[in-house]
Amino acid sequence: MSEKTSKLTQGPVGKTILFFAVPLFLSGLIQLLYHTVDLMFVGRFVGVQAGAAVGASTLMVVCLIGLFMGLSVGAGVVAAMYFGANDYPKLGKVVHTSICVTLVGGAARILVGYLMAPIC
Questions:
Q1: Helices (DSSP H) in the chain: which residue ranges?
Q2: Per-residue pLDDT at 110 exceeds 70
Q3: 71, 94 Cβ separation under 8 angstroms
Q4: How far apart are the C-alpha atoms of 104 and 98, rounded to whole Å?
Q5: Which pLDDT score, from 0 to 100, does residue 104 have?
Q6: Which of 48, 70, 82, 112 could bridge to 90 as Cys pair (CB 3.0-4.6 Å)?
Q7: Are the C-beta atoms of 68 and 101 separated by less than 8 Å?
Q8: First CA to last CA distance, the chain
Q9: Residues 39, 51: contact at Cβ < 8 Å?
Q10: What is the tens place of the pLDDT at every residue in 7-54?
Q11: How many Å is the Cα radius of gyration of the chain?
């Protein structure tokens, strides 16, 4: 069985950037299509006000998804760095810190959502 490896620091830069940009573009397009279909169904079957609420909240949802994807990628990069250096104590700290940030952030979002639900 042959393995294919690519060295990202060698060769044409444009091809490397395209190699990374296409999946990001496609995931953004799929997310946009999901929100569009969601808006269409909610607007048609629930009502105009519900459709307006979905449309108004789409940007906030996209921003939150981008924020947490960025945080997870950053944590993955730091974890990979320590794993590659065989520094398992620091790797454990990175994993535990990212889990703690996830739990605290999730609890904060739950609390904000619970407190703001009566307003809506």
A1: 13-45, 48-84, 88-116
A2: yes
A3: no
A4: 10
A5: 93
A6: 82
A7: no
A8: 58
A9: yes
A10: 667 777 788 788 878 888 898 899 889 888 988 889 889 888 888 888
A11: 20
